[in-house]
Amino acid sequence: QLCAWVAGGELAQRLASGGPSLAAGFVNRKADPFMVTVHPKPEDEEIFLNSHSGQEFNMVVSGRMLIRINGKDLILSEGDSIYFNSELPHGMKALDGEKVSFLAVIL
User: Fold this and answer.
1) pLDDT tens digits, 34-83
2) What is the DSSP letter of 1?
3) Alpha-carbon distance values, 33 to 39, 42, 54, 57 (Å)
4) What's this model's pTM, rounded to 2 decimal places?
5) What does the alpha-carbon distance between residue 29 and residue 8 come to, in Å, rounded to a whole number?
6) Quick check: 92 and 75 in contact, CB under 8 A?
7) CA distances from 35 to 56, 71, 101, 104 (A)
8) How far apart are CA 15 and CA 20, in angstroms?
């Protein structure tokens, strides 16, 4: 299999719904790319943390977010990216009262 392709309209639906991997149709894939949108929440609301096997790459497409990895907070803006061990507890929070969209690739 050469590639997995997502048509523009389908991609827009996946963006809106936080749908499945953008490479869901690729057999034996080694990575799972997702478009993720995080909506703003009250300042005092805790960040939901998760962890999973592998590694993760995130690149902010629009907005700003706080990403917490193993207790360390970093702020990423549009165009910023990060690559980390996703076995460490991590979570994201939209900043500035605006939603943030980012590409997440889980390996």
Assistant:
1) 889 999 999 899 999 999 999 999 999 999 999 999 999 999 999 999 99
2) -
3) 19, 28, 13, 9
4) 0.78
5) 21
6) no
7) 13, 24, 7, 6
8) 10
**φ/ψ of residue 15, rounded to 5:** -60, -45
* CA dist., res. 81 & res. 83, Å (int): 7
Which token pair is 59? 């690149």
Phi/psi of residue 12, nearest 5 degrees: -60, -40
Tokens 């969209």 — which residue? 101
Residues 6+ apart with CB under 8 A from 78: 60, 61, 62, 63, 64
CB 49 within 8 A of CB 87: no
Structure tokens at 95: 């900043």
